[in-house]
Design goal:
71% helix
Length: 147
């Protein structure tokens, strides 16, 4: 397997990123809501296509009190500015974790396999290594193999 990622982050950058996340939490979280599980599915949704419709409806709605309507439209517009870049960043963080985890898992499997080979050849410490890793190996249990 090719090593597609070699990620290193110095301590100063790590602390700066954590501080930036702290600022986001401090400044943004007090204004956000959390929906109950399943609640979002019951709500009509405003996506990219309906955003233009809603924005135009607000422009035309001059004969009613639109203050809350306007706040809601402005809230969506403002949060969209944050949402897309945060979503892209979150996806890249997730993808990077996935790739690094995959490479680490393959390396672990390779080492486990070579240790099992060493156990067959009665190399020192191989039995201990295979037993210890075998306890943590997420593969099939012995009871499933016996079935």
């Amino acid at each position: 397997m090719d090593n597609r990622i070699s990620f290193e982050l110095n301590d100063a950058d790590k602390q700066a990123i954590l501080a930036a996340i702290g600022v986001l939490n401090e400044k943004l979280l007090p204004h956000l809501v959390e929906l109950a599980q399943g609640e979002a599915r019951e709500l009509p949704t405003m996506g990219d296509k309906s955003y233009g419709f809603v924005f135009k409806a607000l422009e035309f709605a001059t004969f009613i009190d639109v203050s809350e309507f306007e706040k809601d439209v402005n809230t969506v517009g403002l949060l969209r500015e944050f949402y897309v870049p945060l979503l892209q960043l979150a996806k890249k963080v997730h993808d990077t974790m996935t790739l690094a985890g995959s490479e680490a898992y393959v390396s672990g499997l390779t080492y486990y396999g070579s240790s099992k080979e060493g156990q067959k050849r009665k190399l020192p410490n191989s039995v201990l290594i295979v037993e210890e890793l075998g306890k943590r190996f997420p593969g099939r249990s012995k009871t499933k193999k016996e079935e």
